[in-house]
């Protein structure tokens, strides 16, 4: 096929251009999650979506998984297959940093191995100990979802995880999950304004959330789930053997990895030829999505808070309802938002204007 395309390009002038493939590195994930939790004004339909999106992005960043290996694949729509609580083992383990919580996640839906129990693989995610990086701790966000779903046998509230008892002779202690919760998907979709009780999030929906978030964050161009998979592949390139590279990425051939390499050569030749240490940080910056980011770029509609996202004060609603007793409640709230003194100042709670009685 490749020879045919090259020949066609010579004979017919067919284009040989490749579609641009963005690369998102770990530092980009950190910037995106910081923006999501500290700067983003977008109002999600349900707050759990923020937690799910964070956990999903952390898995892509730390393990480079395909989205269909975490949530429901678009190819297997309606299967309701992805990571479920029964696939997760939460343990308290002894590490050089002390006693840490650790997640072991069984991947039952890897490409080429879906449904083959003998070829399932496990990935490990451990608790983040650096205080300034706690927002990148996958264990924290998993616990937030698991406690909300009530999946543990003994632990019911966050305080139950503060004390870390373990036998002196044991290297780990498993935190048991209830049998009736093991078939429950961890990342679940919206149904109306609520989170589904048993239906998993689709890869397409997760992609929409991610693309919208990156757009609000100021990244130009298209950022997809595979941007983070390519970032992971480029990050571990040269640091692990070809065999381990193929295993972790789930590739059948070593050659497939070549399509993940960014077109920007990752060598600081200016420093190398002058016998200086490579500036790898700048090299990574130059070949990642961070290069074209503009935090002041125009944002999509609905990204910023406006009067539609704030509730008018009760006294203002009551005053308008008294003035228009036959108006439906929805119309009364709409009129309240139109009042000039219904301020958008986020530091001050909106209050009813003093001259309200004479306004109508």
UniProtKB/TrEMBL annotation:
Name of the protein described by the UniProt record: Uncharacterized protein
Cross-referenced Pfam families: DUF3435
Single GO BP term: DNA integration
Organismal lineage: Eukaryota, Fungi, Dikarya, Ascomycota, Pezizomycotina
SUPFAM superfamilies per record: DNA breaking-rejoining enzymes
Organism: Clathrospora elynae
Swiss-Prot/TrEMBL keywords: DNA recombination
The keyword RNA-binding appears for this protein: no
InterPro entries from the UniProt entry: DNA_brk_join_enz, DUF3435, Integrase-like_cat_sf
Gene3D superfamilies: Intergrase catalytic core
GO molecular function: DNA binding
């Amino acid at each position: 096929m490749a020879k045919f395309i090259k020949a066609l390009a010579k004979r017919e002038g067919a284009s040989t251009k490749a579609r641009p493939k963005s690369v998102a590195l770990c530092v980009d994930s950190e910037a995106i999650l910081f923006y999501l939790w500290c700067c983003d004004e977008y109002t999600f339909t349900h707050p759990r979506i923020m937690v799910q999106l964070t956990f999903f992005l952390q898995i892509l960043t730390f393990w480079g998984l395909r989205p269909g290996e975490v949530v429901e694949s678009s190819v297997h729509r309606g299967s309701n297959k992805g990571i479920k609580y029964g696939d997760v083992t939460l343990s308290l383990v002894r590490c050089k940093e002390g006693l840490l919580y650790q997640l072991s996640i069984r991947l039952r839906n890897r490409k080429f191995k879906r449904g083959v129990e003998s070829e399932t693989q496990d990935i490990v995610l451990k608790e983040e100990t650096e205080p300034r990086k706690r927002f990148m701790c996958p264990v924290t966000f998993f616990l937030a979802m698991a406690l909300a779903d009530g999946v543990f046998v003994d632990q019911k509230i966050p305080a139950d995880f503060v004390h870390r008892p373990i036998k002196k002779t044991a290297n780990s202690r498993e935190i048991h999950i209830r049998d009736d919760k093991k078939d429950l998907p961890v990342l679940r979709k919206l149904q109306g304004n609520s989170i589904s009780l048993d239906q998993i999030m689709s890869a397409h929906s997760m992609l929409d959330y991610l693309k919208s978030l990156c757009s609000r964050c100021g990244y130009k161009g298209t950022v997809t789930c595979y941007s983070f998979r390519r970032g992971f592949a480029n990050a571990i390139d040269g640091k692990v053997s070809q065999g381990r590279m193929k295993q972790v990425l789930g590739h059948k051939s070593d050659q497939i990895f070549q399509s993940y390499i960014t077109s920007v050569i990752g060598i600081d030749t200016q420093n190398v030829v002058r016998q200086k240490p490579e500036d790898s940080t700048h090299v990574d910056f130059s070949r990642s999505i961070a290069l074209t980011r503009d935090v002041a770029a125009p944002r999509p509609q609905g990204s910023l808070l406006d009067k539609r996202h704030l509730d008018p004060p009760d006294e203002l609603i009551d005053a308008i309802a008294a003035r228009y007793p036959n108006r439906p409640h929805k119309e009364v709230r709409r009129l309240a938002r139109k009042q000039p003194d219904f301020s958008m100042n986020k530091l001050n709670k909106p209050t009813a204007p003093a001259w309200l009685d004479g306004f109508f």
